[in-house]
Specification:
This protein has 268 residues and is an alpha/beta fold. It has eleven helices and eight strands. It has helices at 13-25, 40-49, 78-88, 104-111, 142-153, 166-174, 176-193, 198-219, 223-230, 236-246, 249-267, and strands spanning 6-9, 33-36, 54-56, 68-71, 94-97, 116-120, 130-136, 156-160. The protein has an eight-stranded mixed beta sheet with strand order 3-2-1-4-5-6-7-8, sandwiched between helices. Helix 3 crosses helix 4. The chain is elongated and about 70 Å long. Bound molecules: 1,4-dihydronicotinamide adenine dinucleotide and (2S)-3,4-dihydro-2H-pyrrole-2-carboxylic acid. (2S)-3,4-dihydro-2H-pyrrole-2-carboxylic acid binds next to helix 6. 1,4-dihydronicotinamide adenine dinucleotide (NAI) is lined by residues 9-15, 36-39, 42, 72-75, 77, 81, 98-100, 120-123, 174.
């Protein structure tokens, strides 16, 4: 289904990251994609950034020809949008949702069939460095699974998981870019406090986060071991690590992931 046509319903932050990533990776061409979004701001963004991608204010008869419907609206809008799709097409169409917390069962109920897939992507998909997980409904075919796996593999890492793990994925990698941006911003603030110009501080902070993540992934070594390699006896790093332990950074991050995961369950 590599050349499948896709209607993306909701062209906001995540719709932009996913479609932008799929176009940049070459997985999809602009003419395979139509965005449906009632927002004038959204229309303007798509016209300026991806003028060759189709754009409509609302679902219409032409969209019934599409092979795949990808729901990228807020979770509370999923029932309404899924019902609109159900009124337009039959079971030959694959329906994919990226909405946090919305279960496969809820999707099936509103779309009227079981050929559905639930995905939790994240915003770094836009730059080909996403982390996504997906689970599939009982009516999804092997070809559907291959399509979503290839689409997501082109924009980062992808894992197929049990639906019971989707809230945890949301708490970790779905929400995670926000935690890391907060860390980068705070590290840069620390650099400014210590006397660096803002732009240099931001570059050093972001590169340090990216380089460390790359080292963890490519070396296969435990992060604790890599941390130990930075901390010289009696040196600067161990003094700073003591502050982070005293202020509870580990517990704060663990609680953040757990709280986001719980909230994902509530949204459903
Ligand atoms: N932002 C993120 O990092 C992530 C978001 N998600 C999920 O993606 C979904 C979308 O989130 P965002 O992109 O952040 O929200 P957003 O608010 O940026 O985008 C939603 C878009 O839907 C449009 N919209 C509203 N009603 C519509 C309708 N009836 N038909 C078509 N479009 C409509 C809005 O105009 C807006 O452009 C949510 O369900 C969220 O849980 C999942 C993973 C990460
Ligand atoms: O904040 C949210 O609800 C969405 C889901 C994961 C990331 N953003």
């Amino acid at each position: 289904m590599k050349k499948a046509t896709v209607v993306v319903i909701g062209g906001g932050q995540m719709g932009r990251a996913l479609v932008g990533g799929m176009l940049a990776s070459g997985f999809a061409a602009a003419e395979q994609i139509t965005i449906v979004d009632p927002s004038p701001d959204s229309r303007q963004w798509w016209a300026s950034q991806h003028p060759t991608v189709g754009f409509r204010d609302r679902l219409g008869g032409d969209d019934a020809q599409a092979d795949i419907f990808l729901l990228a609206v807020k979770p509370h809008l999923v029932p309404q949008v899924a019902a609109e799709i159900a009124g337009l097409v039959d079971q030959t169409k694959l329906v994919i949702s990226i909405a946090a917390g919305v279960s496969l069962q809820t999707l099936c109920e509103h779309v009227g069939h079981e050929r559905v897939i639930r995905v939790m992507p994240n915003t770094p998909s836009l730059v080909g460095a996403g982390a996504s997980a997906f689970c599939v409904g009982p009516g999804a075919t092997e070809e559907d699974c291959r399509w979503i796996e290839q689409a997501l593999a082109g924009i980062g890492t992808v894992a197929r998981v049990a639906e019971s793990q989707m809230d945890a994925v949301t708490g970790l990698s779905g929400s995670g870019p926000a935690y890391i941006c907060l860390v980068i911003e705070a590290l840069a603030d620390g650099g400014v406090l210590a006397g660096l110009p803002r732009q240099l501080a931001m570059t050093l902070a972001a590169q340090t986060v990216m380089g460390t993540a790359k080292m963890v992934m490519e070396s296969g070594r435990h992060p604790g071991e890599l941390k130990d390699a930075v901390a010289s006896p009696g040196g600067t790093t161990i003094a700073a690590l003591k502050v982070l332990e005293e202020r509870g950074l580990r517990a704060a991050l663990i609680n953040a992931v757990e709280t986001s995961a719980r909230r994902s369950g509530e949204l459903g």
